[in-house]
Structure to design on (471 residues):
């Protein structure tokens, strides 16, 4: 019990004094996850819009695959990315294994299906509302997608935040492809796993505080966004 | 100048899951005159408008405009019974059809402001369209339909849920559009409105054109007993 209390006190101290190691790890976590999020959103949003407005042959198949991928265990994603990037793998020449780039790739694969699925649901609902009007106005396929993406931007931001929450809290995949190397690929979640294993509860708890803080911030933002969305203020 | 009329409809019909919604219909429409489609609920008024506009699939027959159909389509606007509000401001809603067809933003916004003024929405340009009242939404839909200066304006029961004042305002806008050379093709279940706006009448019954002709003739001397009964307010199936 005393362990826990002194750990908490030290953790609190680390946070308020902006401990160098804590800041470095947190910054890297944000950098990796935000980069992954931006790239994943750029892939997922147009894909979701396309799935909403176009009736192409493999549409149902693509949606089913996205939904299936959403439930994919991150560890398996990590394993697959590892195999692809390892020296003997097809992308081995790039030398990306155990770099932040590898972690970004893994996180992109993990969050694209999530963002695309959530975004697709909102865009599909909006499309049902808009369908008759946009068809009657002879709006081009590309303009339809643009219109939906713009008018659903609140819901899309919610989707992105959900993706961010998943990316920043993920540990299995980035542990495998990043290797949790000090000053190189160590991020919040992998550091917590390591420090807990070593018995350094103070640092682990401090890292945990930061992670929880981020998660709470994301959830508050989602809550606030969906409220303004419901009230029709965009 | 593209000429859309005369419009020739020959044996046109549309179906849904094997059930005929309207048709086969034969009609000849010329420009200028306002055409009002009337008939009991479910007689196919909405389906006929959608069919003429090209929003419903033509399963049989032909619909021939005086120009290629694609081109004719660019000169048409459609106002739905339940107006569709884009999740944007009133101003952006009205400017939308211009913007998606390549009009530069300043010009589109100017035109939108102008039309908002004509339908009496100047006070609420910045407001989200979805918070407008039913009458205001219908006026917005009208402004958005007219901003492209269509040659044909389809209206599906534009005053279905509106009170007297909103209805008068909308009829005034429609009369102006007519004077400006827009062909109105509309449905209504309000016989007063039909008399005020119609130059020609199409009376539908069970998905078929039961009687058609100039408005004055139709309202004063309907030929068929069903049309007579309908105008009397009797139940016609
Ligand atoms: N999407 C649809 N699917 C199946 N039946 C429909 C559909 N739309 C309309 N109908 C049917 O077609 C007939 C004509 O409908 P409609 O054109 O809406 O009539 P009106 O506008 O005169 O009330 C009705 O019997 C209606 O039930
Ligand atoms: Mg109808």
């Amino acid at each position: 019990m005393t362990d826990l209390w002194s750990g908490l006190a030290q953790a609190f101290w680390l946070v308020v004094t902006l401990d160098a190691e804590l800041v470095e790890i947190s910054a890297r976590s944000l950098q990796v996850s935000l980069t992954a999020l931006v790239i994943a959103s750029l892939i997922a949003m147009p894909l979701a819009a396309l799935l909403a407005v176009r009736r192409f042959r493999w549409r149902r198949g693509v949606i089913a695959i996205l939904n299936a991928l959403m439930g994919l265990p991150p560890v398996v994603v990590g394993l697959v990315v590892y195999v692809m990037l390892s020296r003997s793998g097809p992308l081995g020449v790039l030398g990306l294994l155990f770099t932040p780039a590898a972690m970004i790739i893994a996180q992109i694969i993990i969050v694209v299906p999530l963002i695309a699925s959530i975004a697709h649901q909102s865009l599909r609902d909006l499309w049902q509302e808009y369908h008759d009007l946009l068809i009657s106005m002879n709006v081009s396929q590309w303009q339809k997608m643009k219109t939906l993406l713009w008018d659903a931007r609140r819901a899309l931001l919610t989707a992105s935040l959900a993706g961010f929450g998943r990316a920043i809290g993920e540990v299995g995949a980035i542990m495998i492809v990043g290797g949790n190397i000090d000053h190189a690929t160590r991020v919040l979640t992998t550091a917590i796993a390591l420090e807990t294993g070593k018995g350094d509860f103070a640092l682990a708890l401090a890292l945990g505080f930061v992670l929880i803080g981020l998660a709470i911030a994301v959830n508050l933002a989602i809550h606030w966004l969906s409220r303004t969305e419901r009230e029709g203020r965009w | 100048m593209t000429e859309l009329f005369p419009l020739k409809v020959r044996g046109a019909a549309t179906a849904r899951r094997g059930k005929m919604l309207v048709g086969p219909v034969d009609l000849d429409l010329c420009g200028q005159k306002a055409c009002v489609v009337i008939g009991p609920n479910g007689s196919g008024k909405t389906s006929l408008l959608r069919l003429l506009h090209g929003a419903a699939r033509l399963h049989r027959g032909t619909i021939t405009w005086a120009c290629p159909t694609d081109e004719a389509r660019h000169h048409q606007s459609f106002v739905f019974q339940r107006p569709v509000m884009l999740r944007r401001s009133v101003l952006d809603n009205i400017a939308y059809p211009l913007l998606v067809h390549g009009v530069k933003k300043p010009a589109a916004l100017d035109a939108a402001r102008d039309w908002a003024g004509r339908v009496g929405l100047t006070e609420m340009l910045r407001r989200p369209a979805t918070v407008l009242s039913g009458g205001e939404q219908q006026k917005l839909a009208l402004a958005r339909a007219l901003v492209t200066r269509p040659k044909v304006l389809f209206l599906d029961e534009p005053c279905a849920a509106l009170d007297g004042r909103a209805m008068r305002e909308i009829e005034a806008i429609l009369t102006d559009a007519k004077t400006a050379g827009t062909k109105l093709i509309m449905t209504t279940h309000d016989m007063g409105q039909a008399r005020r706006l119609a130059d020609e009448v199409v009376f539908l019954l069970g998905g078929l054109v039961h009687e058609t002709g100039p408005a004055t003739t139709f309202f004063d001397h309907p030929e068929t007993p069903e049309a007579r009964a309908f105008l009397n307010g009797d139940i016609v199936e």
Q: What stands out?
A: Residues 106 and 205 of chain B are 47 Å apart (CA to CA). Residues B 45-46, 81, 156 surround magnesium ion (ligand 2) (CB under 6 Å). The first helix of chain B runs from residue 45 to 53.
